[in-house]
Q: What sequence folds into this?
């Protein structure tokens, strides 16, 4: 920046990006697509409207909006408070460092069972909202506190949101679900700065931070009411409800299904058809020699 201005900075970033892409391209494995059942647009809309998809995708979009606002508008707040280029750049560096530190630790805590996707995402959104509140404070303290809290909140939401989406999606539909969630993140990336800019143009930048903080707090409040979803069972594709006994399948194992009566009926009918197909595919046992003699198919002196 000091040596050659923005043009040299963008040129160096382009060279670094191309070098990284050439370096990792041979190391990325080729993943063949899995066979998947036929799906209609209505099925896709129903799956995307499921709370198991909506809350993680909305949390990812909100966290990305907070990240974009922090990167784009915190330097503006620092400049308005009389801070120099180094101080405002340090605020963005603090945001990125906090996110980089929190993300792997959040994933590790989720794998060890110390954290759940719902609780972690809710706490992350609350931290990001608190960061927006700190960004409203004047001076370097408010900028640095806001950057640290926003980075921590987004670093907490990102791995947990994608983990929740992966856990509630069939394996053959992971690409479609992750693509839809990434589209939501891009909408948050564009919508967050747009919301803050519109409110700031009408009032002040402080009110813009307050508006986005309110949106993040509403998302966290909604997360408290959302029930954490697990992976759907293979039979029937319905979510497991451990407090509702449906019946037995196959070898007599007790199966628990949805509470709604119509869904439960479809589940039972599908289970019966699956059991009938399984029994029809079993090889028939050959009758014993005594039974064949008794039926007259084999002469008494043979065998």
A:
């Amino acid at each position: 920046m000091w040596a050659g201005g923005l043009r040299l900075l963008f040129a160096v970033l382009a060279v670094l990006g191309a070098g990284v892409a050439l370096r990792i391209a041979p190391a990325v494995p080729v993943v063949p697509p899995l066979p998947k059942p036929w799906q209609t647009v209505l099925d896709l809309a129903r799956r995307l409207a499921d709370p198991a998809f909506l809350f993680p995708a909305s949390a990812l979009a909100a966290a990305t909006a907070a990240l974009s606002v922090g990167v784009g508008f915190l330097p503006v707040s620092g400049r308005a408070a009389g801070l120099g280029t180094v101080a405002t750049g340090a605020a963005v560096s603090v945001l990125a460092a906090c996110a980089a530190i929190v993300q792997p630790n959040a994933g590790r805590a989720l794998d060890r069972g110390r954290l759940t996707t719902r609780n972690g995402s809710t706490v992350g959104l609350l931290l990001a909202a608190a960061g927006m509140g700190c960004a409203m404070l004047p001076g370097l303290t408010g900028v640095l506190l806001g950057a640290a809290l926003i980075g921590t909140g987004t670093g907490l939401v990102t791995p947990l949101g994608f983990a929740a989406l992966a856990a509630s999606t069939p394996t053959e539909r992971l690409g479609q679900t992750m693509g839809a969630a990434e589209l939501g993140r891009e909408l948050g990336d564009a919508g967050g700065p747009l919301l803050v800019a519109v409110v700031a143009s009408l009032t002040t930048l402080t009110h813009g931070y307050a508006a986005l903080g309110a949106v993040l707090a509403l998302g966290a409040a909604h997360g408290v009411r959302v029930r954490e979803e697990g992976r759907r069972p293979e039979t029937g594709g319905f979510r497991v409800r451990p407090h509702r006994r449906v019946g037995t399948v196959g070898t007599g194992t007790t199966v628990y299904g949805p509470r709604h009566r119509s869904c439960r009926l479809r589940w039972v009918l599908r289970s019966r058809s699956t059991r009938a197909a399984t029994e029809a595919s079993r090889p028939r046992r050959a009758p014993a020699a005594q039974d064949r003699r008794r039926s007259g198919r084999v002469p008494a002196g043979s065998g």
